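Any chance you could type out a protein's amino acid sequence plus the matching backbone structure tokens because I've never seen that pairing?

——
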Amino acid sequence: MKYLILYILVFFTTISFSQEDALFDKANTFYKTENYSEAVKTYEQLLSLKKESPELYFNLGNAHYKLNNTAQSIYNYEKALELSPNNKDILQNLAFANNMKVDAFETLPEMGYTKYMNAFSRTFSTTVWSVLAIICSVLFTSALIIYFFTERTQVKRIFFIAGFVLLLFGLFTLGVANYRYNNIDMKTFAIVFSKESKVKTEANFKSEDAFILHEGTKVTVLDTIENWKKIKLSNGKSGWILKNDIKSL
């Protein structure tokens, strides 16, 4: 009975993967034959099945790019980049898509400690930094146990030094994990989907216009009040935009 259940699970999983592969191939065929609208529909059908991959978002971004859908192409390239950071093909096509935008803002340079800490913390994901901290904690505990239970002075000295180093490294990796989580992972980004959107100084229609944004611009979401989102641009400017005018990444 146990093997029968396992066989059934494997059978249906195989069918599911086959159907998804068939859909992906179908979408790619639409793209190759320049039927970009149908390619978009088929790629999005795959996404509706909760199947995400950098290749899927990348191809969907390409199809939207061919249709001159600025916001949609940038959005999907950004989603692909989240799953495959530093991918050269994605970065290149994202740069092409960004050239279609109306808005162009200078990015505020990262200064001093923040610049180097952000770069260093991006070396690994938050999960990897956390795992390193846990490993150091386990090794530190082991070194401590050996230190207390051994009677040989030389061995005690070695494991005392090893434990001290592991403790420092564990605290360091834990600190980096915490920094990355709070300063990078917790940031919420969004893409402007409205052709033109007036950003307000306050979260209401009666307030003054702070500036105007156009489709494709990437923003950082800071806060939410009812139908409004407080956003910040790469140049440091901030304001309130209608939540339906943007799409969170």
Summary: Residues 188-248 form a domain with the SH3 type barrels. fold (CATH 2.30.30.40). The radius of gyration is 25 Å.
